[in-house]
Structures are given as structure tokens and as C-alpha cells.
Amino acid sequence: MAVIFYMTLLAMAYSSMAFDIGQSTRCVAIPNQMKVCKDVGYSEMRLPNFLGHSNLEGEVVPRSEDWRPLLQTGCHPQARAFLCSLIAPVCLDTFVQPCRSLCVAVRDSCAPVLACQGHPWPEALDCDRFPAEDDMCISPYEKFSHFAKDLPKPACQNCPSMEEGPAMKTVLDAFCHHDFAVTAKIHRRRLPMGEPEFEVEGRVEFIRQGPLLPYDTQHLLQQWLLINLRCANVLVRPGRSQLFVLTGFVQPDGTLALARLFPWHKKDANIAVATRKWKHHRC
Q1: Does residue 44 have a pLDDT over 90?
Q2: CATH classification of 2-138, choosing from 1.10.3660.10, 1.10.2000.10, 1.10.10.10, 3.40.50.620?
Q3: Which of 15, 143, 171, 184 is the most exposed place for a label (fewest CB within 10 A)?
Q4: Structural domain boundaries of the chain?
Q5: The pTM is what?
Q6: What are the backbone angles phi and psi of residue 140, rounded to the nearest 5°?
Q7: pLDDT per position as a tens digit, 162-206
């Protein structure tokens, strides 16, 4: 998925270099099927857009879906606003591009996601091509509370250790040595284009909660899978689900890192015993 997405992203960015801001444009309603840019605060967009696309059904709508994998990672809270200002620019009397500062903020947060998958931020989306803050443009804004900033966040990391059929002591040691331990079922399905998609099924159960929050952990693990696709690809075969015991820690910069993964099969009595013993276990 990462390779397909990056190549499409590069092609879209490259086409934007040919866009002439002085060419004739028209305003059209943002269609319902363009889910990436629905409910962005306005209902009409200008065509051609800043990516040089003028055909709504043939180019704009299908190409907008190519940004969905990046947006799903939650790499930046304004990534959607930045991308939609290029894909579906607001229809006003003048062209309104994203500010250079917004591009920089999104790039600095989202480029590491692409780098995690082996690709750089496309040169054609060089932030220097966007207007400075003193011009009319879409600027970054702060709307999230201090509490939200302190929540753990997934990040790119080396693939964690995965061990089949561990001994009970191995599992208990992992619980002791890491900040948290949870059980989660990971499902892998295939999209029509043959791209793998991962999701955390059902509830995440806490063995050791540590710094994690009940309402945030399932989403947190989901984002970890989307960011660390190369690791996720080895966890579950396509069309299958697998229950895991996951242990890890929150690093000083607030990012979550998984450390040990234990696939929990029905025959793994040692894992079941370890989770029962943990309530009374002394590290």
C-alpha cells in the first residue's frame, strides 16, 4: 500500500507544478462521494484545483481517495485542511492557498510517516512554493487542549520482537519490564485494489494499563498499524484475524513504542496462565 500510495502522491504533486493560477476557473459543489473533503467548512470548490485537475468525476474524486491512507494515520491534526486546500480549494473571488507555515507543520509531522515506509516527502510539495504568512492564505491554528497534547502518540519504530509459544516466565517478565500490556485482535483484509488494510477488532483489554487511556488505546494501536505498515504486514495473513498480547512503553517524547508481541493461539496455555497470575505477581 505504501508504494502505491507514494507513487500516486508523487504524480499528483508533480501535476500541481503545471497549474497556472491565472487560468480560467469555475466553481462546483463538492460531491458527496468525495468523502476526504466533505464537511471541511465550505460546500463549493474551484476547478481546476491546485493539483491541476479539472475533471471532477474522472480525476478529482478518485484522486482524493489516494490521500486517505496518510490522513488515517493522524499524522497531523491539520493534514486534512492542508490537503483539501489543494484538492478542493475554496471557491472565493481570489485563490486561497495554504500558507507556507501550514505546509511546514504538516510536512514535519507527516513526512516521517512516508519515511517509515521508505519514501521522502515529494520535492514537488516543497513548502517554499506556498505564500508567506503575510499573504492571504490558510494558516495553522492551535485548537487542542494541553491534555490532548499529552496523550501518547504512535510513531515509526523498528519492528518489535514477536515470539510464538512463549514460556510463562517470558510473558510475565515482559509485563514487568514494560509500561503497559494489552490484548488486541488485529484483522487484515484486502481492499479492491489489493492493498492490505489493518484494523483492531473489538475491545482492547488491559493487562497492565500504565499510561494508556481506555477510550484512546484502540485508536492509538490502529494508528500504529497504519504508520508501521512494514511491521504490520508480518503480523497477520490477508483475510485473517489474530489475537495478540502487546507490551510496550511510552518514550520521553510522548511517543508509544511496542516492544514485545505474543500471538495468542488457543494452544498457548502459558499466556493464559501468565495473564491470570499477573494480578498477584511480584516483579
Answers
A1: yes
A2: 1.10.2000.10
A3: 143
A4: 2-138, 148-280
A5: 0.77
A6: -70, 155
A7: 999 999 999 999 999 999 999 999 999 876 665 568 899 999 999
The CATH fold assigned to 148-280 is OB fold (Dihydrolipoamide Acetyltransferase, E2P) (2.40.50)
Mean pLDDT of 30-38: 91
Q: What is the 3-state secondary structure (H, E, C) of the chain?
A: CHHHHHHHHHHHHHHHCCCCCCCCCEEEECCCCCHHHCCCCCCEEEECCCCCCCCHHHHHHHHHHHHHHHHHCCCCCCHHHHHHHHHCCECCCCCCEECHHHHHHHHHHHHHHHHHCCCCCCHHHCHHHCCCCCCCEECCCCCCCHHHHCCCEECCCCCCEECCCCCHHHHHHHHHHCCEEEEEEEEEEECCCCCEEEEEEEEEEEEECCCCCHHHHHHHHHHHHHHCHHHHCCCCCCCCEEEEEEEEEECCCCEEEEEEEEECCCCCHHHHHHHHHHHHCCC
pLDDT value at position 149? Answer: 52
